[in-house]
């Protein structure tokens, strides 16, 4: 006799109070709850986080919220893609349990001044180019943690500095949540998947490959070529690509994000890049040792 396997299905929730009610029975049953925070326009990178969360937890909540307080450029916020139906279908297909899609007023009923000490790395790299970005990021992640109270939360290494900043925020508040950093998912040709890739024209899409190529160059010659020379060559590669404007390309200590030199002989290094391709700003990174 055949039994039909019933899929529990994805529940879409817009309010914090409703979310807490929905998660109550899971919590009472001592099930592990995972949170995957996103800004939507989901791709396989996001789905990989959901899949990892399913491996390590019983219930997976994915949040979709384009957080205004982390945008430094109002135009970037305005044009951020919001294909909600597509996102819901992707999460359904991935077997996610809950999608939390609050409104801006749900998350920010009134204006809030948020400022916490995230350590000196807040002001480096992305922090230098996007002033206040990590205050906004940690503000919304703290609010999502308060709403979901997750046992585990999943983030992509794609936003390397973001993972560090969230770790610092978790330590700052002594939050009982385990952070899991997941590998970067790339297109076949190496381009790191990003919701912003949708803005690239055909030509820019090809030019954007120089980000991953410069990182692969560094990875492939790391240890045999001096760091200064590696950076010089990789930067030349990027600057020589029409339509690409380099913000930074650095080899840094993976914990402090400070640039390293030959003498430091440190392990745990990461190469990080940010560049504008046409009007679209992209970031990428690779762990070196
Ligand atoms: P976002 O929607 O861009 O805020 O990203 C939500 C989460 O997905 C963040 O933790 C990102 O680091 C992660 N993420 C974004 N792109 C990728 C990718 N290509 N591979 C793995 N994780 C990613």
TrEMBL record:
GO biological process terms, semicolon-separated: pantothenate biosynthetic process
Reactions catalysed: (R)-pantoate + beta-alanine + ATP = (R)-pantothenate + AMP + diphosphate + H(+)
Recorded GO MF terms: ATP binding; pantoate-beta-alanine ligase activity
Gene Ontology CC terms: cytosol
Keywords annotated in UniProt: ATP-binding, Cytoplasm, Ligase, Nucleotide-binding, Pantothenate biosynthesis
Pathway(s) served: Cofactor biosynthesis; (R)-pantothenate biosynthesis; (R)-pantothenate from (R)-pantoate and beta-alanine: step 1/1
PANTHER family: CYTIDYLATE KINASE/PANTOATE-BETA-ALANINE LIGASE, PANTOATE--BETA-ALANINE LIGASE
Miscellaneous field: The reaction proceeds by a bi uni uni bi ping pong mechanism.
NCBIfam families tied to this protein: cyt_tran_rel, panC
HAMAP family to which the protein is assigned, alphabetical: PanC
Name by which UniProt lists this protein: Pantothenate synthetase
């Amino acid at each position: 006799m055949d039994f039909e396997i019933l899929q529990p299905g994805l529940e879409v929730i817009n309010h914090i109070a409703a979310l807490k009610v929905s998660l109550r029975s899971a919590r009472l049953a001592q099930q592990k709850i995972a949170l995957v925070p996103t800004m939507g326009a989901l791709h396989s990178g996001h789905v990989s986080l959901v899949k990892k969360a399913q491996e390590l937890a019983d219930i997976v909540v994915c949040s979709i919220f384009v957080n205004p307080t982390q945008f430094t450029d109002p135009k970037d916020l305005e044009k951020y893609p919001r294909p909600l139906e597509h996102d819901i279908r992707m999460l359904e297909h991935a077997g996610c349990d809950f999608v939390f899609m609050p409104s801006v007023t749900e998350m920010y009923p009134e204006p809030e001044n948020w400022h916490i000490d995230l350590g000196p790395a807040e002001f480096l790299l992305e922090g230098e180019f996007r002033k206040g970005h990590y205050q906004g990021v940690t503000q919304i992640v703290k609010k999502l943690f308060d709403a979901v109270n997750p046992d585990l939360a999943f983030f992509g290494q794609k936003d390397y500095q973001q993972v560090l900043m969230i770790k610092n925020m978790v330590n700052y508040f002594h939050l009982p949540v385990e952070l899991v950093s997941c590998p970067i998912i790339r297109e076949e040709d190496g381009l790191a998947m990003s919701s912003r890739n949708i803005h690239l024209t055909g030509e820019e899409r090809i030019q954007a490959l120089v980000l991953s190529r410069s990182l692969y160059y560094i990875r492939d010659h790391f240890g045999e070529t001096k760091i200064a020379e590696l950076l010089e060559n990789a930067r030349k590669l990027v600057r020589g690509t029409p339509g690409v404007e380099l913000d930074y390309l650095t080899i840094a200590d993976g914990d402090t994000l400070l640039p390293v030199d030959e003498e430091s002989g440190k392990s745990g290094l990461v190469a990080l890049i940010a560049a504008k391709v046409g009007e679209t700003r992209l970031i990428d990174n690779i762990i070196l040792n």
